[in-house]
Amino acid sequence: MLVIGITGGTGSGKTTIVEEIKKEFSKSDIGFISQDSYYNDNGNLSFEEKNRINFDHPDAVDFDLMIEHLKLLKNGKNVNQPIYSFFDHNRTEKTKLIEPKKIIVIEGLLILTNKKLSDLIDIKVFINSKSDLRFNRRLNRDINERGRSEEEVIELFNKRLNEMHKLYVEPMMKCCDIIIDNNTNNSIEVDPLINIIKNNL
After folding, report:
1. Helices assigned H by DSSP within the chain
2. pLDDT tens string 141-167
3. What's the number of domains the chain is made of?
């Protein structure tokens, strides 16, 4: 099994690249794991307490479960990936079945900050995008998909996201095998990654 890790700042285009890969290849060959599904189970906290969690810090992620699931997949076992609700800031009772494939793509903001997880990833990809473009994409996503107000997103980006990006995300670029620039609103150039996947299938 080949494991490909895709990372980059919030709004850099990670999900867009995953969707491009899905369009290019058969579901029977490639499986996908999202870091967004592995935020800690916060069911014991009040909504106000959950709302204060810094979800852009590595401590917010259940890396132990991600590592366990990735190892199981490498050993040919199925896993039940959690499903996380960004409206409730908590895992739902539902899970998603992930089956072993020839290639597993793991995508997320912080996936390379954990050494044990990073060591399980064979090819590391960084999506590089300017701050203003990432902000606009994050603003549109959070308003349209996560029920946030414009004021909330602006405050979050200025007070936390930029700082966390500089501390935990941007430094990971130096350990990546492929860097893909996404500094326009046009389609992302994914051919280098697509070619690697084709060669490994």
Report:
1. 14-24, 47-51, 63-74, 115-118, 131-145, 150-156, 162-164, 191-200
2. 767 666 676 777 677 777 777 888 899
3. 1
User: Which residues touch 157 (CB under 8 Å, ≥6 apart)?
Assistant: 135, 138, 139
pLDDT of residue 153: 66
Domain membership flag for residue 199: no
Per-residue model confidence as pLDDT tens digits over 76-99? 999 999 998 877 778 888 999 999
Residue 145 region by backbone torsions, left for phi larger than 0, else alpha for psi between -120 and 50, else beta: alpha
In the three-class reduction of DSSP (H, G, I as helix; E, B as strand; rest coil), residue 9 is classed as coil
Site of tokens 């290849």: 25
**DSSP state for residue 61 in the 8-state scheme:** B
Position 199: which residue type? N
Does a structural domain hold residue 6? yes
